[in-house]
Amino acid sequence: MKRLLIYNVFLLILMSCGSNKQFTAQDNQAYQQLQDLVASRSFEIVSTSARPIATAAFTKVANSNILGPGNSAGNIDITSNSNKLTIKGDSISGYLPYFGEQSFGGGYGGNHTGIEFKDIPKDYQVIHNDKKHFVTISFNITDQYRKSDNYAITITLYPSYRSHIRVQSTSRTSIEYSGRVSTVEDAKQ
Questions:
Q1: To which H or E segment does residue 94 belong?
Q2: What is the spatial distance between Cα 115 and Cα 74, in angstroms, rounded to a whole number?
Q3: pTM for the full model?
Q4: What residues have CB less than 8 Å from 54, skipping those under 6 apart?
Q5: Structural domain tally of the chain?
Q6: CATH of the domain at 32
Q7: 122 in any annotated domain
Q8: Does residue 4 sit within a domain?
Q9: DSSP state, residue 80
Q10: Is 2 part of any domain?
């Protein structure tokens, strides 16, 4: 009986910790601007960090300091690496540096070792989370140079213009990126 009481108290505390955040008018305006940006289909994301799946083999390589000072197998600063994901109309293009393992056969395509695509995606979907104020975009796309590699990409955008990209590949371990989203016009300035 005492155990049941403790369980119920714990459950009640857990439920009271739920997110019932009350958004201000400013929060709502920022969320609406984000929705308008996504609806325009004219924006780009530049990432500042990559978070590969830290497998045992990748961790061994990372521990050799090959990734540079301050980086680890689970978090890599890519601010000095060229990278961009652009959505312009129906077309999506991107170059994201890749850190991780290839799961099975196939080469890395010469100089094309990153995640590279430029095409009209399949299964493009936008989901607005009005309760938590973020937008999720998901789609499938084929690598531009490695035709056997297909990506399931999920982008989460926040009103602060932070971005989170998750890439799941058919032949490589998954990787995530964090960065910032901006309009294509703002990015060119």
A1: strand 91-96
A2: 18
A3: 0.82
A4: 62, 72, 73, 74
A5: 1
A6: 2.40.128.410
A7: yes
A8: no
A9: T
A10: no
Cα 97 from Cα 71, distance rounded (Å): 15
- Residue 52 inside a domain? The answer is yes
C-alpha–C-alpha distance, residues 114 and 97, integer Å? 5
CB contact at 8 A, 165 and 149: no
What residues have CB less than 8 Å from 43, skipping those under 6 apart?
37, 86, 87, 181, 182, 183, 184
Residue 33 corresponds to which tokens in the numbers above?
């601007």
CA angle 75, 121, 142 (to 5 degrees): 65
Which residue range forms the structural domain that includes residue 43? 24-188
Residues in the chain: 189
* Tokens coding 133: 């104020």
Tens of pLDDT along the chain (189 residues) come to: 555 455 445 544 544 455 567 889 999 999 999 999 999 999 999 999 999 987 777 676 667 767 777 777 778 889 988 999 999 999 999 999 998 887 765 555 567 778 999 999 999 999 999 999 999 999 999 999 888 889 999 999 999 999 999 999 988 899 999 999 999 876 555
